[in-house]
Structures are given as structure tokens and as C-alpha cells.
């Protein structure tokens, strides 16, 4: 049969087949299970919308929808308002210590957001250090719990999603456009608002959209900060794990609604962005604007304030982990007690985290890089479908995917629940879109004729891929591996559904001590988690630096 | 070494017939050039031979072996690309050895063969260098050495000189031809530069709209263009209706600019035409004239530089043409 397939298409077709096989079993099948759970009656025999009408009929779940969407919108708005001036300052104004600001500004991308939420609780919660200190001085402020606190944490942890693309966009604006606007009589301020802003708007919107989707699927932050407020991802988890009885039908309804919302948002964005795309061909980076001392000072203050405010919670939790807790109550003297407890209880979870992250990073690379190669090099309908399917996990909340995993792999021909493999597979599926995107971007940079040269010299397409393409991609692949590793290590939303017995991870240890009030262990676990995420990044950074210098 | 036989090759992209029922015979050891404007299908035809482009119809053989269904990596061709395509992750020697390793040549022989191939392209001793240390011309030499060292049945060149500067192009094309002849490997060379094509080729296949317009040795294509397109693409020409020259036949004629001279320098038997000098363009060795005849027809003329004669636009002149060089084009 293979003989009838044109020889140039055999390798891409093979990769696409394997990709579809993997994504079919570990993405589409579990999602189909969630969908069918939500659409079947209690006997599982008949199609029904009863689950939907029942869930949507209850004010509690309607509130969950409204809360989730309005918190998402509020966080997106706040993040955008904070990030756009920040981006402009980084791109066009003199800011003291700019390289440091730039390096620090990308750190929230890899640090776990629920650790930040927890730190905020320890500092500003009802019994928080700052709260009590203010209280002792006769000052009080509103509760940090609820929508306000969640939005604050989202803004502080998700702002790089808007900041980084917007900085790039501001830098990509061709100076001559600005000069043209001013030549036509616009003031510099008017040139910015009328010419530059429309050009950078697509980048801002794309970033804002990422923020919105992250808030929809985030589990840890609302879990820590929502108190009684119902939130989608948390409610889906509660319904599924259920204190009384597990309820896959209701959890399925929430999961499906969550997926549909995300898909809808993505479609709206595609329509909107595809209509307004301004191509600029900047040949030189626009120069820094002339700024007076006042503006210069304000810009510096603004940038540093955001960067530091985002990192203070992480710093605080590291400091707090060296203090003594009795139950949830903090005593302000130095202690290694938390780490002693950590050593007793959490070494196995630490090892699990390291092993799972390594295995997942390996699998993501194995699955994502070939798919990224095929969707870039092979122009065909099959490749487009593969691209869409491989991007799908991006729109699926971790909790929902995990519920699908449990329903699908609890019985039948493939039983994975209760073991470690289910976690690794769920992580792999969740991170595949990022590997596909990043490797596709690298493949774009590799000239096709290099591959053709190799083939004409007698190497088969597979050997060419391994001997020429992969070595040329290796730098990008390596940073992808590190990023996957780091984000998997701090994954919570799928983990809390899928872990079992001995296969707890660091995030689960934190999660459980939050529930059980073991704040000391939680801070120690958080510190360990911060180290686990920052060390590989620092190593990668050094490696890249050495490579660039050498 | 083998000849290349193309029979009825066709390929359509969307609604464009990129290669349209092409028949072609390239002899053993021949240097054959596909020449034509961009989009004429010459590169598609070359890529069909290399195995990077499927045929919708037709077949291709090397000698008596049909290869069009064979994977590209089994075809035993050496290909030189426009943008060099030198592997940046391998040294110069690593690049040249790449095809030898793929053919499982014993390691002991590879070193000597690589050094010999580098010597052929004037890069002896460059083996340890990295591609990013080389100039464009040197990179293309590496690419040529890499294609030659495997002694392929067929050598393919896809506009190999178009990224090089003009002076280097002229010297490299001579070298390429000399290498090909000394090794006797059948070569197909794609270019859009008619001067380059004429200088390197044994024969030229002139392509337009996916079809071969004319195949022949360079002098024949230049002197006896079979079509209007061939006459115009191969250098400059005057395309004239016969009556514009005062001839009775209802045909179109091609008359090359160098077949015209000022009447006083021409043999007396050449027919003469009176006109006015419209423009005079001094190009160094050549002087280009546009002469407007009384009928309004403008003739392009190319003269070797004549220092003693002052030519001024606006002056009345009489020109004469060589009647033997009138070519009827359909």
C-alpha cells in the first residue's frame, strides 16, 4: 500500500498518523468521554440535555459562570492597563536598570501562580502578617478574599503575557511611520495614539486573550482565594471528586461549558485579528524618546513597582518558610522546622515531581517536535487538521482534561488510574501545543533546501530529519524542554484530579497542607517548588550565554 | 554516467500548468541548460529530475533506468542550490563527506576523497573551517565539491550563481563547465541569464509557459530563433514586419542589432535605410543607437566603439543591414 503514496509524503504522513494516534487516544477520546457524560442520562443510555438544564437551572452554577467570566474580564482589563504603559516604557523610554527589569519581568511566566496566591493570603489574609501589623496600628482594609484578590493575583502573575508581545510590537513599529505622522503635523503624543497604537493593538489583544484563557482554566488561584465564591474550574473539580458521590455528568457539563467558552473566545480573536493585521517592515529599532527627568523617573518607578510587586509574594514565601509555624499561626523567629517536616513528609513527592517533569518534558519533545515539523513543512489538509488538534489542549482546562482521563482510563482496555503514567500523559497532552508552536517557529527558520541537499546526497527523509533538522533545532528544543519541565513541575489543575497514593507531587503537598492548615509545610513546599522552577532556568540561561559567547 | 530521458512530463499547480508535456533528451556527459524567464517551469522540471516534485504524467529515466517513481535519495544525483544549502552544523569537510557517509564509503577513503574534491574547487586545506567563516563564492564551491565527490550519475544546478556578484559569476561559470567536462558527468543547469546559458552549455532548452520553445546549441538558438519568444529572450533583437524594411513577403523578421551598421562602414551590397539618430548610448566596448526610420519604425543598432566618429542624437544617418542575418520568425 505504501507504494501508492508519493515518496515525499511518506515521512510526514507517518508522523501525522502517529500524532493523530497519540492525540486521538489521550486527547480526543477523553474529551469525547466528558462530552458524552454531560449528554447522557443517569443510566447512560439516552441522549439528553437534562444535565445542562439542571445545572444551569441552579443559581449556584449560574453564579459560577458569571463569576468566572467577570473575574477573567476584570483580570484581563487590569493586566492590559498595567502592561501597555509598561511595554511602552521598556520599548521607548529610558528606564534605569532596563536589562534587569526585562529579565525579572519574564519570571512570573514560570513561577506557579497559586504559590503567589498563597503568599498573598499569608501576608494580607485575615490572619496575615501585614493585616495584623496594620491592625495593630489601627489600620484596616477590605478582605483580600474574593474577586478583588483573585484579579490582583492574576494581574501580578499573568502580566508578562501582554507585556512581552507588546514590547516586541512597539519595537517593530517602523520609525518612518512615526516620522511621517509628525511630518504631517501630529504632536508626538498624537502620533503615538493615532499611528502606533493601532499597529501594536493586535499584539496587545493576542496577549490579553492568553490572559483571559489562563484565568478561565486556572484552578489554584481561585481555590486559595475564592472562599465561598463558586468558580468554574474549582466547581468542576469539587463535583467530580465529590465529598458525597462523584458526579461525572455534572462535572462534564461544567467542563464542556468551559471548553466551549474558550473555543468561542479563540474564534472571536481569530476573526478579529485576521481582519486587522498591519505589516510593518522595521529596518531599525525605533530610538528612545527624549524624556525629561520627571518622565524618566516616573517610568523607572512604574516599571520597577510592577516587577517587584509581582515577585514580592514569592520572595516573602521563601522568607516565611524559614520561620516557625504552629498550625496556621506564624511566630516570628527563624526556624528550620518547616524543612525538617518537609524532609520527613515530602521527599517522595519532590522526587515524583522531578521524575514526572523529566518524563513529561521528554514525551512532549518526542510528540511535539515532529508534529511541529510536519505542520510547517507539509502543506495539506491533513497537516492543518493535525495543527488544530495539537493546539486544542490549549483550550482545555487541566481539570477538565483530567476528568476525561479518569473517565476514560478507569476501566476497559487501558487502565491508567492509580498509577504515575496517567499524570505524565496528562502533562504531555497539556504541553504539546507549546512544543508544536515553538518547534514550528524554529523549522520556519531552517531553509528547505538544506533538507533537499541532504536527500539528494543519499540520506532518506527520516535520516535527514535526524541528522540535519534536529541538530539545527537543538537550541530551541532545549529551551522548550526546560520550559515544559518547569511548567509541569508546578502543574496543579490536572494533578489534583489524577494523583493517587504514593504518586503525589510537590504541588499536591502544598494543596493538601492548604486544605489541612499545615502552613509550615506549605511554605517549605512552595520554596522547594520555586527552587525547582528557577534552577533549570538559570542553568539554561548560563548555557545559552556560554554558547553565544563561545 | 547516463543520459536523461524525459517523456511527456507534466505537472499542474492549481490552475497553472507549470510543466506541460515536456519531452527532453540529454546526452551522456552533456552540459544541458534550461533557460527561461521566472515562472517558465524550468526549476519545476529540474526538481522533477531531482525527485523533489511529483509528476502528474510522463516519465523520466537515467540511461535505461526509469527513476521518476524512485525516492529522491535513491536517484544518485548531485544537486547545487541557489542559496548554497551548505549544512551550517557541519564543517566544510563534514559537508563534503556527507554524501560519502550516506553511501557507506569506508572511513579510510573518505578523507582522501574529500581533500581531492576540495582541491578541484580550489578549496584545498579549508576542510576544518565552518561554513559561517566562508564567503558566498566559497560556500558555493563547497556545495559543488559536495555534489561532485559522490560521482553522481547526474549533476543538477539550480541557478547556482545568481547570489554571487557579477565578476565572480563569470569566473565560476567557466570553472563549473571545466569541472563538468573533466569528470564527464551529465549536467542539467537552470538559469534565467541567457549569457550565462550560452557560455556554459553544450545545448540549451529554452522554456516558456511550461513548454520547451526551442532546443539547440547556443549559436543556433541565438542565430536561428524558432519563435518570436526565442528571438526576444536570447539577447536584444529588432522584430520587424517585412514591409517595414521595404520587403514584400508577409512575414515577421528578426534582425539582431549587431547585423546593422552605419552605411559608410558596411559592405556596399548591404541594403540601406535612411533615418534619424534618436538616442546614442555609450556602453564602453559597444555603442548602442536607436535610429528612427521615416516610417516611424525604430531600429536598435549595436556598434563596436568607433572613437573617430562623432554621433549626435538628432543627426540624419544612413544605416545598412546584413541580409544574410534576417531570420523569419513565426
Number of domains of chain A: 2
CATH architecture of the largest domain in chain A: Orthogonal Bundle
| Tally of alpha and pi helices of chain B | 8
Number of DSSP strands of chain B? Answer: 18
Mean pLDDT of chain B equals 92
Low-pLDDT regions of chain B: none
Q: Please describe the biggest sheet of chain B, giving its number of strands, its sense, and whether it closes into a barrel.
A: 6 strands, mixed
| Helix percentage range of chain B | 25-40%
The CATH top-level class label of the largest domain in chain A: Mainly Alpha
The CATH topology annotation of the largest domain in chain A reads as MetI-like fold
CATH class of the largest domain in chain B reads Alpha Beta
Using only CA atoms, what is the Rg of chain B?
24 Å
Give me the side-by-side strand order of the main sheet of chain A. Answer: 1-2
What structural category characterises the helix and strand content of chain B?
Answer: alpha+beta
The low-pLDDT segments of chain A are none
What does this structure look like?
- The complex is a heterodimer of chains A (550) and B (330).
- Chain A has 550 residues and is mostly helical.
- Chain A has helices at residues 10-39, 50-57, 59-92, 98-105, 113-124, 129-136, 147-172, 175-183, 188-217, 220-225, 232-241, 248-275, 293-320, 337-345, 347-377, 381-391, 398-408, 421-445, 448-456, 461-489, 495-498, 506-516, 519-549; strands at residues 323-326, 329-334.
- Chain A has a two-stranded antiparallel sheet.
- In chain A, helix 14 packs across helix 23 and helix 15 (347-377) runs parallel beside helix 18.
- By secondary structure, chain B is of the alpha+beta class.
- Chain B has two domains: 4-232, 3-Layer(aba) Sandwich (Rossmann fold), CATH 3.40.50; 239-329, Nucleic acid-binding proteins (OB fold (Dihydrolipoamide Acetyltransferase, E2P)), CATH 2.40.50.
- Helices cover 25% and strands 32% of the residues of chain B.
- Chain B has helices at residues 42-50, 92-102, 107-120, 136-148, 166-183, 194-200, 218-223, 228-233, and strands spanning 4-13, 16-26, 31-35, 57-62, 65-66, 77-80, 154-158, 186-191, 203-208, 211-216, 238-241, 252-255, 260-262, 272-282, 286-293, 298-304, 316-321, 327-329.
- In chain B, helix 3 (107-120) crosses helix 4.
- Chains A and B meet through helix 19 and helix 20 of A and strand 6, helix 2 and helix 4 of B.
Amino acid at each position: 500500500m505504501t507504494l501508492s503514496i508519493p515518496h515525499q509524503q511518506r515521512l510526514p504522513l507517518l508522523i501525522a498518523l502517529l500524532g493523530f494516534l497519540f492525540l486521538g487516544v489521550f486527547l480526543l477520546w477523553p474529551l469525547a468521554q466528558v462530552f458524552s457524560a454531560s449528554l447522557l442520562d443517569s443510566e447512560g443510555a439516552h441522549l439528553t440535555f437534562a444535565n445542562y438544564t439542571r445545572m444551569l437551572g441552579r443559581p449556584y452554577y449560574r453564579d459560577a459562570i458569571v463569576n468566572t467570566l467577570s473575574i477573567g474580564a476584570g483580570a484581563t482589563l487590569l493586566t492590559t492597563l498595567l502592561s501597555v504603559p509598561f511595554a511602552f516604557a521598556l520599548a521607548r523610554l529610558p528606564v534605569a536598570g532596563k536589562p534587569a527589569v526585562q529579565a525579572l519581568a519574564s519570571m512570573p511566566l514560570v513561577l506557579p501562580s497559586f504559590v503567589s496566591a498563597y503568599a498573598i493570603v499569608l501576608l494580607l489574609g485575615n490572619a496575615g502578617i501585614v493585616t495584623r501589623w496594620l491592625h495593630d496600628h489601627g489600620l484596616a482594609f477590605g478582605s483580600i478574599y474574593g474577586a478583588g484578590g483573585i484579579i490582583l493575583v492574576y494581574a501580578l502573575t499573568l502580566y508578562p503575557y501582554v507585556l512581552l508581545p507588546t514590547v516586541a510590537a512597539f519595537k517593530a513599529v517602523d520609525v518612518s511611520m512615526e516620522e511621517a505622522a509628525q511630518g504631517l503635523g501630529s504632536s508626538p503624543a498624537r502620533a503615538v495614539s493615532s499611528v502606533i497604537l493601532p499597529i501594536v493593538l493586535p499584539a496587545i489583544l493576542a496577549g490579553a486573550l492568553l490572559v483571559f484563557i489562563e484565568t478561565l482554566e486556572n484552578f489554584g488561584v481561585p481555590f486559595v482565594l475564592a472562599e465561598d465564591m463558586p468558580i468554574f474550574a474549582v466547581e468542576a473539580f469539587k463535583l467530580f471528586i465529590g465529598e458525597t458521590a462523584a458526579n461525572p455528568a455534572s462535572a462534564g457539563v461544567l467542563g464542556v461549558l468551559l471548553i466551549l467558552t474558550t473555543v468561542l473566545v479563540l474564534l472571536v480573536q481569530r476573526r478579529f485579528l485576521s481582519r486587522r493585521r498591519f505589516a510593518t517592515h522595521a529596518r531599525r529599532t525605533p530610538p528612545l524618546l527624549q524624556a525629561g527627568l520627571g518622565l524618566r523617573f516616573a517610568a523607572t518607578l512604574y516599571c520597577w513597582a510592577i516587577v517587584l510587586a509581582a515577585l514580592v509574594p514569592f520572595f516573602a514565601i521563601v522568607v516565611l518558610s524559614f520561620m516557625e509555624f504552629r498550625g496556621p499561626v506564624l511566630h516570628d523567629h527563624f526556624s528550620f522546622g518547616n524543612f525538617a517536616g518537609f524532609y520527613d513528609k515530602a521527599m517522595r513527592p519532590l522526587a515524583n515531581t522531578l521524575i514526572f517533569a523529566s518524563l513529561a518534558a521528554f514525551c512532549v519533545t518526542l510528540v511535539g517536535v515532529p508534529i511541529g515539523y510536519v505542520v510547517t513543512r507539509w502543506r495539506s489538509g491533513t497537516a492543518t487538521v493535525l495543527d488544530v488538534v495539537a493546539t486544542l489542549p490549549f483550550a482545555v482546562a487541566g481539570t477538565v482534561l483530567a476528568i476525561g482521563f479518569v473517565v476514560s482510563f478507569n476501566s476497559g482496555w487501558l487502565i491508567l488510574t492509580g498509577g504515575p503514567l496517567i499524570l505524565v500523559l496528562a502533562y504531555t497532552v497539556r504541553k504539546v501545543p507549546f512544543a508544536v508552536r515553538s518547534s514550528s517557529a524554529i523549522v520556519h527558520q531552517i531553509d528547505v533546501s538544506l533538507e533537499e541537499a541532504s536527500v539528494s546526497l543519499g540520506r532518506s527523509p527520516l535520516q535527514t530529519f535526524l541528522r540535519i533538522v534536529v541538530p539545527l533545532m537543538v537550541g530551541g528544543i532545549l529551551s522548550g524542554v526546560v520550559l515544559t519541565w518547569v511548567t509541569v513541575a508546578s502543574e496543579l489543575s490536572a494533578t489534583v484530579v489524577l494523583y493517587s497514593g504514593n504518586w503525589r507531587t510537590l504541588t499536591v503537598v502544598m494543596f493538601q497542607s492548604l486544605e489541612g492548615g499545615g502552613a509550615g509545610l506549605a511554605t517549605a513546599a512552595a520554596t522547594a517548588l520555586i527552587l525547582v522552577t528557577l534552577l533549570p532556568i538559570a542553568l539554561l540561561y548560563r548555557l545559552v550565554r556560554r554558547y553565544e559567547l563561545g | 554516467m547516463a543520459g536523461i530521458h524525459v517523456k511527456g512530463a507534466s505537472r499542474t499547480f492549481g490552475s497553472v500548468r507549470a510543466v506541460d508535456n515536456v519531452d527532453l533528451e540529454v546526452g551522456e556527459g552533456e552540459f544541458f541548460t534550461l533557460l527561461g524567464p521566472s515562472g517558465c517551469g524550468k526549476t519545476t522540471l529540474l526538481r522533477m529530475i531531482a525527485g523533489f516534485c511529483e509528476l502528474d504524467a510522463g516519465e523520466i529515466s537515467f540511461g535505461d533506468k526509469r527513476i521518476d517513481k524512485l525516492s529522491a535519495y535513491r536517484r544518485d544525483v548531485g544537486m547545487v542550490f541557489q542559496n548554497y544549502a551548505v549544512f551550517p552544523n557541519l564543517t566544510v569537510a563534514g559537508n563534503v563527506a556527507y554524501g560519502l557517509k550516506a553511501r557507506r564509503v569506508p572511513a579510510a577513503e573518505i578523507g582522501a576523497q574529500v581533500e581531492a574534491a576540495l582541491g578541484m574547487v580550489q578549496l584545498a586545506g579549508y576542510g576544518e573551517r565552518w561554513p559561517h567563516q566562508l564567503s558566498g563564492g566559497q560556500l558555493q564551491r563547497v556545495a559543488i565539491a559536495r555534489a561532485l565527490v559522490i560521482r553522481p550519475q547526474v549533476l543538477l544546478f539550480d541557478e547556482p550563481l545568481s547570489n554571487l556578484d557579477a565578476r565572480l559569476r563569470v569566473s565560476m561559470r567557466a570553472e563549473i563547465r571545466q569541472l563538468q567536462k573533466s569528470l564527464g558527468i551529465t549536467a542539467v543547469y537552470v538559469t534565467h541569464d541567457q549569457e550565462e546559458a550560452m557560455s556554459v552549455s553544450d545545448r540549451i532548452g529554452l522554456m516558456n509557459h511550461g513548454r520547451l520553445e526551442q532546443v539547440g546549441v547556443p549559436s543556433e538558438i541565438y542565430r536561428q530563433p524558432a519563435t518570436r519568444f526565442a528571438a526576444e529572450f536570447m539577447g536584444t533583437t529588432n522584430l520587424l514586419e517585412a514591409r517595414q524594411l521595404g520587403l514584400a513577403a508577409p512575414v515577421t523578421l528578426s534582425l539582431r542589432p549587431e547585423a546593422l551598421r552605419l552605411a559608410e562602414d558596411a559592405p556596399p551590397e548591404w541594403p540601406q535605410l535612411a533615418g534619424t539618430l534618436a538616442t546614442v548610448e555609450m556602453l564602453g566596448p559597444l555603442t548602442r543607437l536607436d535610429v528612427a526610420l521615416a516610417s516611424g519604425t525604430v531600429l536598435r543598432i549595436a556598434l563596436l566603439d568607433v572613437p573617430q566618429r562623432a554621433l549626435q542624437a538628432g543627426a540624419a544617418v544612413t544605416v545598412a543591414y546584413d541580409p544574410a542575418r534576417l531570420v523569419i520568425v513565426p
